[in-house]
Design goal:
With 497 residues, the protein is α/β, with parallel strands linked by helices. It has a nine-stranded mixed sheet, sandwiched between helices. Strands 5-4-6-7 form a four-stranded parallel sheet. A hairpin with a 2-residue loop joins strand 25 and strand 26 (404-406).
């Protein structure tokens, strides 16, 4: 990739300055708004603007050992602020810019941030709005004293409990360029340069970490203001982008863009899927679009306790799997901590034996369960005889109906294959007879001509055991997913209970 060689790790901020000095007019990133012209930010501009923002943040109390909350939508100002925080020695906690006040304030209190950057109105924490970031152009743009932030990054999560939780990486904010090549390099011969699309919101761990790594490698990225399937296809084709990572909802919508199979996507070296289980039809669509050797699926977590990888070519013989261990060891344990044989569902425990550094700490939550150096984040699954992992679901999402266990992801995958279904979420509603009854919330492709409940029931009944078939089908205009494709099952359930 396009990197400037150095012999040892340097701070995040210093890395940006080194790249700017090496090729000041080279684009650091392109910003693609929902409407209007694209914006090109050069390495020189990124370095200078982040120096100015760093001074502004320092004037408002941000410095070494501190966290700032970054509540801006995807934008150049978001990137300037994150790099500026690192140059000031502070860590960055990206949060959704549209969180309700009550939810945001709970999170900020748990995280202990010293400053929030965003158009959030009143807050118990000092606020700098987007106009203030834009107005920092009056500060000096020269370099600041070099500092390595620690912590450098934190990620907000409410998981399935709804309680604020902050996942903090204790790893210092320093990088050795080229020390960690992209995972697909194990399987593919990658070109020297990897211009990449970033379609995800920067408050999500995938979007933020990919954006961060792209800035440090020096490869060009195209950052979308907000995901739009048709625009994403346009950007890949126009800029000859080589790779991107996306959640299944994004991939499904891109696969359904009219005429997508006639578009020139030949520049794509690989496509990476993660975030949740991927329906079979989506895998088949992308295997067809880019080739099974270039489509990858990954299972991991913000906590970085382990990773599995499944290539499209392996999916053909391990359908439904999320992959084989990648620099990771897997154990499937029962409730007493006993290891289960292949084929039996239990709690997934992972360990990265070659990475002795702690990968995360929790703020606002109890540490996860650990056994003999293996860690679980609460997911259930099993391994086959070849060691490939299959996800059942999160334990907290599992629906116990009439004494039988139903995993929502399995029902959602079946329903998502229906040609009239654009999106679907399966939840368990209280029921006096069954304890919980399986209920499907369906977003149709065409709201004016939705599928009937009878048609949906017949469709899924032909694919799943009878006890897994939803007892109710609810048609909604749009499922309230976040920009990262996440859904709060607890909120959906409580609204319907």
């Amino acid at each position: 990739m396009a990197v400037v060689e150095t012999e040892e790790a340097i701070s995040y901020g210093r890395r940006i300055t080194v790249l700017a000095a090496a090729d000041p007019d080279r684009p650091a990133f392109l910003f693609a708004p929902r409407s209007g012209p694209e914006v090109t930010v050069t390495r020189r501009e990124l370095d200078r603007r982040s120096n100015q923002v760093a001074r502004l943040l320092a004037e408002h109390g941000a410095g070494p050992g501190h966290l700032i909350a970054l509540a801006l939508p995807n934008s150049p100002e978001h990137v300037f602020t994150s790099v500026g925080a690192w140059k000031a020695g502070a860590g960055v906690l990206p949060v959704r810019h549209d969180l309700p006040d009550w939810e945001r304030e709970r999170l900020l209190e748990v995280a202990g941030v010293v400053l929030v950057v965003g158009d959030v109105g009143e807050s118990a924490v000092p606020v700098l709005d987007r106009a203030a970031i834009a107005g920092s152009v009056d500060r000096a743009d020269t370099s600041l004293p070099d500092v390595i932030p620690q912590p450098a990054v934190a990620v907000a999560s409410s998981g399935s409990t709804g309680r604020p939780k902050v996942i903090v990486s204790p790893v210092p904010g320093a990088a050795v360029p080229g020390a960690v090549p992209p995972m697909p390099s194990v399987y593919l011969d990658l070109p020297d340069e990897l211009p990449q699309l970033v379609p995800a919101p920067l408050y999500h761990t995938n979007g933020f970490s990919i954006c961060q790594s792209m800035l440090f490698t020096g490869d060009v990225m195209v950052l979308m203001e907000k995901f739009d399937a048709a625009q994403a296809v346009d950007l890949i084709e126009r800029h000859r982008l080589t790779c991107f990572a996306a959640v299944p909802t994004m991939l499904a919508r891109m696969a359904r863009v009219e005429g997508v199979r006639d578009r020139d996507l030949s520049s794509l070296v690989y496509v990476m899927q993660g975030g949740s289980a991927c329906p079979d039809w989506v895998v088949e669509a992308w295997n067809d679009l880019v080739g099974p050797e270039r489509f990858f699926m990954a299972y991991g977590s913000t906590e970085r306790v382990g990773l599995t990888i499944l290539r499209g070519v392996d999916w053909l013989t391990h359908r439904g799997s999320c992959g084989a261990p990648y620099q990771t060891e897997i154990r499937i344990l029962d409730d007493e901590g006993n290891e289960l044989p292949p084929g039996e569902v239990g709690e997934i425990f992972l360990r990265r034996p070659d990475d002795p550094l702690p990968q995360f700490e929790y703020i606002g939550a109890e540490p996860p369960k650990r056994i003999d150096g293996f860690t679980t984040i609460g997911d259930l699954g099993w391994v086959d005889e070849d060691g490939f992992l299959y996800i059942a679901d999160r334990r907290v999402d599992m629906i116990v109906t009439g004494g039988a266990n139903v995993f929502p992801a399995e029902v959602e995958a079946a329903l998502s294959e229906h040609p009239q279904v654009n999106d679907v979420v399966v939840i368990g509603l209280p029921d006096p007879e069954w304890g919980r009854r399986v209920h499907a919330v369906v977003e149709p492709v065409d709201p004016s001509a939705p599928p009937t409940p009878e048609a949906l029931e017949a469709f899924v009944r032909a694919r799943l055991a009878a006890y897994k078939v939803p007892k109710g089908f609810e048609i909604v205009e749009r499922i309230p997913r976040t920009d990262a494709g996440k859904i709060n099952r607890g909120t959906l359930t409580s609204e319907r209970a």
